[in-house]
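Before relying on records like the one below, remember that each one covers exactly one chain. Contacts with other chains, cofactors or solvent are not represented anywhere in the record.
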Amino acid sequence: MKRRTFIGTSAVGAVGMMATTTQAMPANGKTGSALKNNINHSACYWCYGSIPLDDFLQNLNDLGVKAIDLVGPEDFPLLKKHGIHASMCWGAGLGITEGWNDPQYHEALIKSYKEVIPQVAEAGFTNLICFSGNRRGMNDFVGLQNCVEGLQQIIPIAEKHRVVIQMELLNSKVNHKDYMCDHVQWGVELCRRLASDNFKLLYDIYHMQIMEGDIIRNIQDYHQYFGHYHTGGNPGRHEINDTQELFYPAIMKAILETGFTGHVAQEFIPTWDDKIAALKEGITICDV
């Protein structure tokens, strides 16, 4: 299952693609009430889309997790019902491959973000995702400048409504072939040129492990440009336990040491039959 197939499609239909692997035994993790909450936990709903959103929000409350990622304005009433915060909103834009690096999409993108930014703000939320788009043979420096010129048209609106536009760093090696914003330094340069506190990078640990590794050093060196984090086990984008190569407790401690007060969202695809138990384990691992 790939997240790109989930955007703008039925959650239930997308989850039908989910692969099954050997199930690990659930850990005897903490209950939600025992969370330290030094980390502001969240979870990406697309990974659990086989569970109705109403039920999933109750699951989050049971776990003591007070935020959810990658939901749009149509979901906001249910979030209010359960008292769950939207830590990363979507609903604006044209998807992952058609992004700000290509001027032919600017008009449609600007229109879309102008409509959604006020909706995010009115609901009391802050973060709204965006994407660079694919290269399609375009030089990275040209794409960078195109992103600057397009995003400059919506940054004043984001500033007015106190919404932070966050471009996600994705790998172009395995999951999102040809995606342009696939290295930290390219994204950091974009942040520097836009020079606004209302534009940040969504640092996806799984994706950046594939592209360049050196996760903790990059967090230490560039944390001021990172407004949000996603997790995921590598290889495979499954559970973040000892079945994969990243050691998340150390990564979470590094994030805390930067003074980060935003959210860290679990974005792994569960292989366990009990997906909520898998989520609980991931939250427990990151609750340093």
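The radius of gyration is 18 Å.
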